Amino acid sequence: MKAMILAAGFGTRLFPLTIDRTKPAIPFLGKPLIGYVAEYIAGFGINDFVVNLHHQPDSVIEALGDGSDYGVSIQYSVEQPKILGTAGALDNAREFLEDDTFVVVNGKIISDIDIAAAIDAHKRSGAVATMVLKPNSKREKFTIVDTVDDNVTGFGDFAIPVTEEELRDTEHEINIPLMFTGIHILEPRVFDYIPRGVYSDIVPTFYNPALAKGEKIHAHVTDANWFELSTIPRYLDISLAMMKVGNVHFGKNCTLSGEASIKDSVIWDDVTIGEGAALYRTIIADGVHIEPGEHFENAAIVRADMVRSCDEIPPKALKGYVQGENYIVPLN
């Protein structure tokens, strides 16, 4: 069985951490995020991958190479001049995927979901596709997936957060919606629905038409651990939650010039921190120099010259400001 990792997105909500790399290529506790995804999938005996590329493609190639460091074989599917969407990405790689059942995994997740169990359930269901779903108990802003008897029946709006009053009200049962984890198992027949050579997303192009035609879409529901690193606050929170030792992670070649107070922070490579500096809940990107005595909390910091070299700051990016040689993004 083969797998496709989706890695072509722009990562605009992670800007400025994605100035010089795409979202799946950002470092996560010592290795590129997409490296975790590759190792995760390989853990289920799937070793033949295709990875789609568009934004900052070299950053993914540098992170994964030919896959040998992760025990897999990787081919790349380049989308140029425009990004193609999820269904378009499958079309662009169809010659690699169309011979057998295959797995598609988003390149921005950390999870211990049992893919082997999902594949087994998919094969027993006889469905054209299986979506791996998870209860959205926190009602985060993810699309609701409707199901009946382990079958997907449609897609709703974003989940609406539950108020504290609703949580305290024991007279009413709180309905927990299901959300998509970014893991699918697909049969080659999905290509019957996907047009050639155009931008197309997977839900309107495949899932909705397949449901309308009466195709079976299996819903594999799991309560395993799953994290999606799509925003800077989420990246920091998940990094801190997954640190095995302490509450600070240092990358390579970092220098502390004296006593400094650092707590609940992620430090990338080649960072210098001056004496008397204080950092709390910060992300310090590659090559940043923190001056002696500077204090930052709830912030992501990159070199200001990197931001100045950008054509534009993405509209979805958190707002920041220049201070000295650095660009500071408050996370509040």
CATH class of the largest domain: Alpha Beta
| Structural class estimated from helices and strands | alpha/beta
Q: Provide the domain count.
A: 2
Query: Over all CA atoms, what is the radius of gyration?
Result: 21 Å
> Strand count, sense and closure of the main sheet?
7 strands, mixed
Molecular shape:
globular
Short description:
This protein has 332 residues and is an alpha/beta fold. The chain has helices at 33-42, 57-64, 85-92, 94-97, 115-125, 164-168, 202-212, 232-242, 304-308, and strands at 2-6, 27-28, 31-32, 48-53, 73-78, 102-106, 109-111, 129-135, 143-148, 151-158, 178-186, 217-221, 226-228, 248-250, 255-256, 261-263, 265-267, 272-273, 278-284, 289-290, 295-303, 321-323, 326-330. The chain has 2 domains: 2-228, Spore Coat Polysaccharide Biosynthesis Protein SpsA, Chain A, CATH 3.90.550; 244-330, no CATH class.
Describe this structure in words.
With 332 residues, the chain is an alpha/beta fold. The protein folds into 2 domains: 2-228, Spore Coat Polysaccharide Biosynthesis Protein SpsA, Chain A (Alpha-Beta Complex); 244-330, no CATH class. Helix content is 22%, strand content 32%. The chain has 9 helices and 23 strands. Strands 5-4-1-6-11-8-12 form a 7-stranded mixed sheet, sandwiched between helices. Strands 14, 16, 17, 19, 21, 22 and 23 form a 7-stranded mixed sheet that branches. A hairpin with a 2-residue loop joins strand 2 and strand 3 (31-32). The chain starts with a strand and ends with a strand. The mean pLDDT is 94.
